[in-house]
Amino acid sequence: MIQLLLQPLTLILLLLSLPLSLTMAEEKTYRVGYFEQKPFSYQQAATVASQDEYLQTFQQVLKGKHWETLFELAPEAYISIGTNLKEEGEKQAQLLVSGAYGQLDAIIVDGHLATRAILKITNNNPNLPIFAEGIKEPIKEGFIQSENDSGIDNFTVSITPGRYSKMFRTFYNEVHFKRLGLLYHDEENKNTQTHLENAEIVAQEKEFIVLPYSLSSSRPSTQGQPKIQMQQCSQDSIPCCLTALNSLFMRGMDAFFIPSLDCFDWTKNDVKPLMDFLIDKKIPTFTQQDSRSVQGGAMMGFTSADLLATSERIAEKLYAVLMEGKKPRELQMVSPTWPRIAVNASVALKIGFNLSFEIQGASDEIYEEIWTRERIQVGGR
User: Fold this and answer.
1) Which of 50, 133, 231, 278 has its CA 20 to 30 A from that of 144?
2) CA–CA gap between residue 190 and residue 208 (Å, rounded)
């Protein structure tokens, strides 16, 4: 009898004497890569600061959930490819997926170019889940089948239905313009850069006119300016965009939507000449880029969603897939968060426009002056 009682006791003592690593399974830390089209658009700082802040915010979210040992957003696998760089995007996507920056368990992608490159390389790899953000029209661009089904087992994306139609309605209801200027590079990019189709739908509803201008196919107006050959406007340069703005103004533009073009990107150019032209002509402007555009001279904007809320959403998705075993395709794609509204009171004053109490009350960010590029790049410091 005594011998029978001693056997379990001996076993317990033996287990207690073993190293901890042998008595319990070692917890895995999942490495996550980040692949973006251009510097993280939720921030107002320069590229390096944006990356640091994104990593810090994501780590803050993980700590709040006690998940900091479960997931690591690897700094060495944080890749930016720039705008309109298709070949570079596919090259970097191949390196990321092949393990050149270390073996990854998941990839977060931002922007349609980066997403398309990653999906082409991964080819629905069930062992590498892809979480996409920052795709403006994922259904129209063919990334997903519907709001409820991505159509790809290893892929999910965050979408906000009706976002861009609401954006144009909000701008119109505040300004009541007659002719809205839209500028884009070419026909292929007219909806990703200016949301032309959404603007035309709202134009029919509100009875205003859309004035489209394609840099690659529209012949610039030469009234009041030197003649510019078409090949000079094959790129989204400041001179070409300034010529386009002048052409739109001559056609009666009384409001302008700031597009996703390099000439309006404060991280790549000093956009001041373009904003000065629009302010001088008393043109109300609206943006859907980020706070930088409003800081630099746009009157109003739907800025990008809150960084903290975005990090929370991504962390929840990572947990559902990597810890609970769900497929990315099974996750909800409709985002519960709406973009923030920003206004620049100084711009409104300069162009003689009175911002309504309603839009001021609904704004998350109100700027009292126009910032220089240097100030924008350091986040207002």
Assistant:
1) 50
2) 19
Residue with tokens 């313009």: 177
Q: Tell me the per-residue pLDDT of 109-153, one tens digit each, with 9 for 90 and over.
A: 988 888 988 998 887 788 899 999 888 778 888 899 999 999 999
Q: Bridge-partner residues for 341, per DSSP?
A: 302
Q: How far is CA 171 from CA 105, 277, 296, 301, in A?
A: 42, 20, 18, 9
Q: Which residues are paired to 209 by β-bridges?
A: 179
Model confidence at 225, pLDDT cuts 50, 70, 90, reads very low
Q: Return mean pLDDT, the chain.
A: 83
Given a cut of 70, whether residue 4 has pLDDT beyond it is no
Is residue 284 within 8 A of residue 352, CB to CB? The reply is no
H/E/C letters for each residue in 71-130?
EEEEEEEEEECCCCCHHHHHHHHHHHHHCCCCCCCEEEEECHHHHHHHHHHHCCCCCCCE
Contacts of 1 (CB under 8 A, 6+ apart): none
* Topology (CATH) of 30-159+305-330: Rossmann fold (3.40.50)
Fold of 163-304+339-377: Rossmann fold (3.40.50)
Q: Which uninterrupted H or E stretch holds 300?
A: strand 300-303
Which residue is listed with tokens 């073993």?
Answer: 18
Q: Are 159 and 183 in contact (CB under 8 A)?
A: no
Residue showing tokens 């850069």: 193
Cα 16 to Cα 134: distance, rounded to the nearest angstrom: 51
Query: What pLDDT shows up at residue 31?
Result: 96
Phi and psi at residue 137, in whole multiples of 5°?
Answer: -135, 75
User: How far is residue 200 from each of residues 197, 252, 259, 260, measured CA to CA in Å?
Assistant: 5, 17, 15, 18
